[in-house]
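Hey, why these numbers?
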Amino acid sequence: MNREKKPIDRGEIASGMVLFGLAGFIFTVILASYIYTVSIALFIIEILSIVIGLIILEIEKRNNQAAYFLNVNIFQKEYDEYAAKLGVVKSKIRVTLLKDDEHDFQMEIPQYLWVEKDCINLFPMAQYYIKWHTSSVERPNISELRITSIPIKSILHFKKAGRVYRHEIEVPEKSVVKHLFHGEVILDASGEVIGIEQLVKTKIITEDKRRTELVYKKSRGKIKTLIFRHDAYETFKELIPSKER
């Protein structure tokens, strides 16, 4: 059976060279007082190892950046051609999809939104895939992107949901000065100092749980819900005011 050879990772080799050089350098400093002649040769080898390793790491970093931007450009070109082929209207009306009933994701996916032939159409924008699914070694499969087309007559309603939550939490005071000068001394029964009480401060945490829910009926009477960022409410209110709940 033929086994696929794992490609050599020059970045790992370079990192190993740097670590070897640093570790050897420390060891050689300790050894220098005992074997002076050998130490000089080791110093040279270790410094060369560190320098060459750093040079290779920098080259790999630049190569990875170049490969990443190449993948971004290729994907963007594929995206534009594919969107044009599907008839996507890159309108200024945009909403951000948070979740739907069929996919368990919690990412914010910006969507182009346009109305055509009594349907609301959604198509994911390229920026989400470039940010989260493009790297120096891979890029998204453009054929997996689909237009979501919802007949307006099948929309049951859209509504606001959730709210902004604010609550207080106590966090330890990080300032050493405050801790030393304002911390309360803890005494035992005999009056001896056994510690200093940890100072805490109150911090207000804000969680924005607002969202807009669009509920519509699919074929065979199946009810589906799309959840958008809360600012989509005003967009739907302008486009389909009769469906507001």
